[in-house]
Amino acid sequence: GPSNSEGAGKVSLLKKVPALKDGDFTLAECTAILLYLSRKYNTPDHWYPSDIQQRARVDEYLSWHHANIRASAPKTMWIKVLIPLFTGQPLPSEKLQEVMEGLSTSLKQFEERFLQDKAFIIGSEISLADLVAIVELMQPVGVGCDVFEDRPRLREWRRRVEDAVGKELFFQAHEMILNIKELSNIQIDPQLKEQLAPVLMKMLK
């Protein structure tokens, strides 16, 4: 999301997080960061395959993901926790229903077009595509919208991702998301509320 801090501006020209600083090199956008790290550190081939067609499948999913899963899943967190925290007012239930309907359509496409009957998105091994997908889909879970509950195929895919990453690391990585509701108990500076409330509301339009 956006950040107005001076430090963020030095790392990312877009003043957004996540951002990476590697020596004198800086980079924004999570997908670009993942691809950069996988290339720099020569990660195991299954994460971003050297086979040109398998790599293209990862790229295909990442391109689709941004305008579909990512366009809906994080909004559940904003609607249920973050916007009420900064505005002091809950959003109408219709807003969450609208987002969940859009997400449901994307999840149907995800299962039918990308996952199909495979263990992971591009085949028998986990890839960056699976990591990007799972992080987004854990956000609704963190605010009580379990997208896996009535979707056996999706639920089994999540289990395989957990096993491939390692359950301890998986839940450590998602600890903040799974405990996001605890933010509703913190006190926000009134001036910060005034500055961020309009920005957050605009993000849902």
Helices and strands in order:
Elements: H1 6-11, E1 19-22, E2 25-28, H2 30-40, H3 52-67, H4 69-87, H5 93-115, H6 128-142, H7 152-165, H8 167-173, H9 175-178, H10 190-203
Helix pairs in contact: 3-6, 4-5, 4-6, 4-10, 7-8
Keywords: Cytoplasm, Transferase
Catalytic activity: RX + glutathione = an S-substituted glutathione + a halide anion + H(+)
Subunit structure: Homodimer.
Taking all Cα atoms into account, the compactness measure Rg is 18 Å
Beta strands, count: 2
Tell me about the largest β-sheet: 2 strands, antiparallel
- Elements, N to C (H/E): HEEHHHHHHHHH
Oligomer: single chain
Structural class: mainly alpha
Second rung of CATH, namely the architecture of the largest domain = Up-down Bundle
CATH class of the largest domain: Mainly Alpha
The largest sheet has its strands arranged as 1-2
* Mean pLDDT figure: 87
Query: Regions with pLDDT < 50 over 5+ consecutive residues?
Result: none
For the record, give the distance between the C-alpha atoms at the N and C termini, rounded to a whole number: 15 Å
Number of structural units classed as domains: 2
- CATH fold-level label of the largest domain: Glutathione S-transferase Yfyf (Class Pi), Chain A, domain 2
* Number of continuous helical runs: 10
Helix content: 55-70%
Give the overall shape.
globular
- How large is the share of residues in beta strands? under 5%
Subunit structure: Homodimer.
Domain GST N-terminal: 1-45
Keywords: Cytoplasm, Transferase
GO cellular component, one term: cytoplasm
